[in-house]
Design a protein that fits this description.
CATH architecture of the largest domain: 3-layer Sandwich
Number of domains: 2
Largest sheet: 3 strands, antiparallel
Bound molecules: FE2/S2 (inorganic) cluster
Distance between the termini: 112 Å
CATH class of the largest domain: Mainly Beta
Strand content: 15-25%
Order of helices and strands: HHHEEEHHEEEEEE
Helix content: 25-40%
CATH topology of the largest domain: Rieske Iron-sulfur Protein
Strand order of the largest sheet: 1-9-8
Oligomer: single chain
Shape: globular
Radius of gyration: 36 Å
Length: about 220
C-alpha cells in the first residue's frame, strides 16, 4: 500500500528549498505587514473621526439654538399704563411693564428704600450699567426684566395691586414669589429678610425707536 504524504511535508518543503526563496517570502510578508498596519491605521483614523462626529457636530450651535439666543424685539406702542407683556428670550420669560405715575412715585419713597437689600443696584451682575439706577431702567415708565426669582428660579407673580395684606402690610406693588415668599418692588429690587439674595436681572436691551425695544442686544454700552 502506498504511503500518503502528510500535509506538513508539503509546507516544510516549500519553505526554503532554493536560496533566495526565504528572502522573497520574508520581503512579501514584510510588505503585507506594512500594508496591513497602514490599512488598520487608516481605518482607525476614519473610525475615530466617525466616532467623534457627533461631538464635533455638537460644537456647532444648531439653527434653533442660534435663534433661541438671538435678540428679540417688543413693540410697546400699544401698552397702556399698568400693562405688561411677556416674551421669551433665551428660554427665559422677560416682562416689559409700563409703570404708572403712581408706581413711579411709590418707588421713590424713603421707607420703601429702607426695606430693600440693594436699593442702588450695586450688584453689577444683576443689570447692565445703563439700568444701574433707582428705577433700574432706561426710560422711567418702561421696565424690562427677566421674570425669574433669584432664589431658586421660580417665575414670581406680578402683583402691582396694593394694598395686599396677604403679601405685606405695606405692599406697594411688585413681584412676589409664593414658593418661599421672596418679594421685589416694581423695579425688581429685592426686599430684606427674604430668601432671594439679589435683585431681579435686567437683560441687555435698547430702544430701536420710541416704540420698539430690542432684548438681547450685546453691546452693554447703550445709554
Ligand atoms: S424661588 Fe423665589 S422665593 Fe424661592
Amino acid at each position: 500500500m502506498k504511503k500518503q504524504k502528510a500535509p506538513e511535508d508539503k509546507l516544510t518543503r516549500s519553505a526554503g528549498t532554493k536560496s533566495g526563496q526565504e528572502g522573497d517570502s520574508s520581503d512579501s510578508s514584510s510588505s503585507r505587514r506594512k500594508f496591513l498596519i497602514s490599512a488598520t491605521a487608516a481605518v482607525g483614523v476614519t473610525g475615530a473621526a466617525i466616532a467623534a462626529w457627533p461631538f464635533i457636530a455638537s460644537w456647532r450651535p444648531s439653527a434653533r439654538a442660534r435663534s433661541i439666543g438671538a435678540p428679540i424685539q417688543i413693540d410697546i406702542s400699544k401698552m397702556e399704563p399698568g400693562a405688561r407683556i411677556t416674551v421669551m428670550w433665551q428660554g427665559k420669560p422677560v416682562w416689559a411693564v409700563r409703570r404708572t405715575l403712581d408706581t413711579l412715585e411709590g418707588l421713590s419713597h424713603e421707607h420703601l428704600r429702607d426695606r430693600l437689600r440693594d436699593p442702588d443696584s450695586k450688584v453689577d451682575s444683576q443689570q447692565p450699567a445703563y439700568a444701574q439706577n433707582a428705577l433700574r431702567s432706561i426710560k422711567p415708565e418702561f421696565f424690562i426684566v427677566i421674570a425669574i426669582c433669584t432664589h431658586l428660579g421660580c417665575v414670581p407673580l406680578w402683583r402691582p395691586d396694593y394694598p395686599a395684606k396677604r403679601i405685606d402690610d405695606d405692599w406697594m406693588g411688585g413681584y412676589f414669589c409664593p414658593c418661599h415668599k421672596s418679594k421685589f418692588d416694581m423695579a425688581g429690587r429685592v426686599f430684606k429678610a427674604v430668601p432671594a439674595p439679589t435683585n431681579l436681572v435686567i437683560p441687555p436691551h435698547r430702544y430701536l425707536s420710541p416704540d420698539l425695544v430690542e432684548i438681547g442686544f450685546d453691546d452693554l454700552s447703550n445709554s
